[in-house]
Amino acid sequence: MLIDATSAAISGLRAAGVRLGTSAHNDIPLPKNVRRYYLPSSTHGGGNGATTENPPPASAGNNCPGNNWGRRTLTVNPVPALGLVNRVRAALREWVMHDTPPPPSRWPLMKDKNLVAPTKAAMGFPSGVPGIPDSIFLPENFVFPVLDYDWGPEYDHSEASGNPTNAPPPINNVIKTLVPRVDADGNEIGGVPTVQRDAPLGTYLGWNITAGPGDATYDGRPFHAGQVCNYVGGMVPFFKKKADRLAAGDPRLSLEERYVTHAGYVAAVTAAAHNAFNQGYLLAADRDALIAQAVASDVCNQPGDGGMCNSGP
Questions:
Q1: pTM for the full predicted model
Q2: 276: confidence class by pLDDT, cuts 50, 70, 90
């Protein structure tokens, strides 16, 4: 049993290959004693689970972790992994101790058309989402190629051991990389059900966008600007009001159009949490905690809102 990956592993590690092999012709089937769970639209290791209509903006000093490729431009993705981790731990214990089958595997599959080419068109990513330029989906920015090298006859590729006699190694071929398809909000389709996908407050991404590392430039541009930021997911919040999102040209529905009121948002979270619980991917305690968090949240519940999403100036 394994929590296969968050979506940051798809963009940062090109992890679709472990599900499709090097040819990407078909889904690789799992053995009967293995379960795979994919947490859609999530950052590496999961986010902090914050539930707010006003997430903090990206900090000017917050670099992409693990590299010096520049500052991130989008606020950090809050989609938490803890609920799924808690459920999988309990399921593994019951499977080992009592032979109780765990919930079915859930991850994006080629046969369901939920793993697609890493292009904006194939993904179905919406145009006009604030802060996400079309240029991010260019091959040199979005998903870099995975190369199959020939290190020579004395090197064992499957074990990554031996004597690499070819230096530098020639390239045998480029390994095909696929990514999850997304819905009209830009959130991933496939994987386990989550409250954030079924009752979203924005577009949750397994990747972020670099702004460039300060003053260092090449050809008048910051190094690595406008490329995918490794291992840290991003979020683009929805506008609160329909009029504001129309003025900005945002194609995604506002909170007003989705939920109308704070109570409407709580009802959507309640339905989503019960759906994840009923399908076996959430513990009762975590289900109840998510609902309580929505009740206490500021979503259409700011001072002066009167519980409405369209109140105020």
A1: 0.89
A2: very high
Give the alpha-carbon dihedral of 286, 289, 295, 301, to 10 degrees: -90
CA distance 301 to 283: 27
Query: Hey, which residues does 193 pair with through a beta bridge?
Result: none
Could you read off the pLDDT of 128-145 as tens digits, one per residue? 999 999 989 887 778 777
**Alpha carbon distances (Å) from 101 to 14, 30, 33, 38, 39:** 30, 15, 10, 18, 20
Vertex 239, ends 286 and 204: CA angle to 5°? 45
User: Both tokens of residue 198?
Assistant: 């079924």
168 upstream amide cis, omega within 30 of 0:
yes
- Look up tokens 């292009």; give the residue: 119
Tell me the C-alpha distance between 191 and 204, whole Å: 14
Q: 83 or 17: which carries more pLDDT confidence?
A: 83
Full DSSP string of 26-68: SPPPPPTT--EEEETT--TT-------SSPPPPPTT-BPTTS-
User: Of residues 162 and 60, which shows the higher confidence score?
Assistant: 162
Q: Are 216 and 223 in contact (CB under 8 A)?
A: yes
Beta pairing class for 2-6 and 36-39: parallel
